[in-house]
Structures are given as structure tokens and as C-alpha cells.
Amino acid sequence: MAQEIEIEYKNLLTESEFNRVLDSLPFPEETQTQTNHYFETADFSLKENGCALRIREKNGIFTLTLKEPHDTGLLETHDTLSEQEAHDWITGRFVPKKHTSKQLAAKDISLDDLTYLGSLVTDRRELKYDNVLLVLDYSTYNGTSDFELEMEAASEEIGREAMRKVLEKFSIEKRQTPNKIQRFFESKNGSVDS
Predict the structure, then answer these.
(1) How far apart are CA 63 and CA 70, in angstroms?
(2) Residue 75: which residues within 8 A CB-CB, separation 6 or more?
(3) Could you tell me how far CA 13 lies from the centroid of its own chain?
(4) Which residues pair with 127 in a beta bridge?
(5) Phi, psi of 110, deg, nearest 5
(6) pLDDT tens-place values along the chain, 194 residues long
(7) What does the alpha-carbon distance between residue 156 and residue 160 come to, in Å, rounded to a whole number?
(8) SS3 at position 108
(9) How remote is the C-alpha of 47 from its chain's centroid?
(10) E strand intervals along the chain
């Protein structure tokens, strides 16, 4: 599927909170490593439109994804890239792709205006839990790192309630949690506005 609606809830964790959740629930022992490669224009056109553009490299598969605001969660538009195409994008040779190029053009964002900003590496563990996908992430980027609890749900109501229950169960403070690309920008620039 080229497009999907993503409904997710996030909460940054301390290392001890992360370990408490990890040790208490049946998460897999092995992590899945994924790398997000981020793109933006010089005048931050994507950010101005509430969007984010990345290539995710996971298990040898490269997926170009444009995230944009939607009434419920985020609309994600995907295109699969070959390893060579991903390399081309990262080195500034932007190969048009059917679905994401169409969405970018609708926002008057040209591929020629894109710039590669860097990457964020995540070691991820996933667990089906209480009608949601519960995710523990340890991410490193620009000389910093963080721990995050993420929840993907079929509806906002299910996701909100499941997050509330997990935070309560583990006595974790609810924290304002910018998404990964916002944290990446903040670590690069020292501030984030979105």
C-alpha cells in the first residue's frame, strides 16, 4: 500500500524507566536496527507544511516516506527504493518516485530543493500488547541518545487509553514528546519549533 494513516502515541523515558518496562514485559531479546535518513529544503518547506521526509533502512529494505498531517494521526506516503536509489538520494541525486513525488508536487516542493540532513539509528523492540503495538526504542543521533515508548493503535481512543494504562502501571510521568525528526533537528540546531 502506498499510503496509510498512522496513529501513534509517544513518551520519552529515562534509562531506568526503559529498563523497567523492558524487563517486565515479554519483549523480544534481540533488537531490530533501523536507520532513518532525513531530508528538508533550505527554507524548511517540509516543516512549514507540517511534513517530514525520510528514507528508512531496515533489514536491507529502503522505504522513502513522506509524513503529513491528517485529521486522524499522520498520512504516510511510501515508495520502495533500491539500495542504489537510496544512495543516490543520500548523495543529493533525487530520483523521482511515483507516490511521494506526487505528494511533494502538490505542496509545491521540488526534489531539486531537497537536502540530506543526516541520520538517526534506532534499536527497536516491538510487542503486541493490549490491542496495540507497543514499541521500545533506543535512538542515537548527532552525538546524543534517547529512550522512547511508542504505541501504534487502530484508533485514537484505543491508543490514548493503552498509553495511559502503561504509564500508570510503570509509574512513568507523561512527557511532551516531539517525534524523532523533531528531536533530530533539535539536536542539530539547538531548538525545535514544531
Answers:
(1) 20
(2) 3, 4, 5, 6, 67, 68, 69
(3) 16
(4) 134
(5) -90, 140
(6) 488 888 899 999 999 999 999 999 999 999 999 999 999 999 999 999 999 999 999 999 999 999 999 888 789 999 999 999 999 999 999 999 999 999 999 999 999 999 999 999 999 999 999 899 999 999 999 999 999 999 999 999 999 999 999 999 999 999 999 999 999 989 987 544 43
(7) 6
(8) coil
(9) 14
(10) 3-6, 8-13, 32-41, 52-58, 61-69, 74-81, 114-129, 132-141, 144-152
Q: Which residue's entry shows cell 536491507?
A: 60
Sign for the CA dihedral angle at 125, 19, 189, 44 comes to positive
Look at phi and psi of residue 59 and say left if phi exceeds 0, alpha if psi is from -120 to 50, else beta.
left
DSSP H helices, the chain, are 15-24, 45-48, 83-90, 98-106, 156-169, 180-189
pTM (predicted TM-score): 0.90
Give dist(CA 80, CA 63) in Å, integer: 5
What span, in angstroms and rounded, lies between the C-alpha atoms of 127 and 116? 32
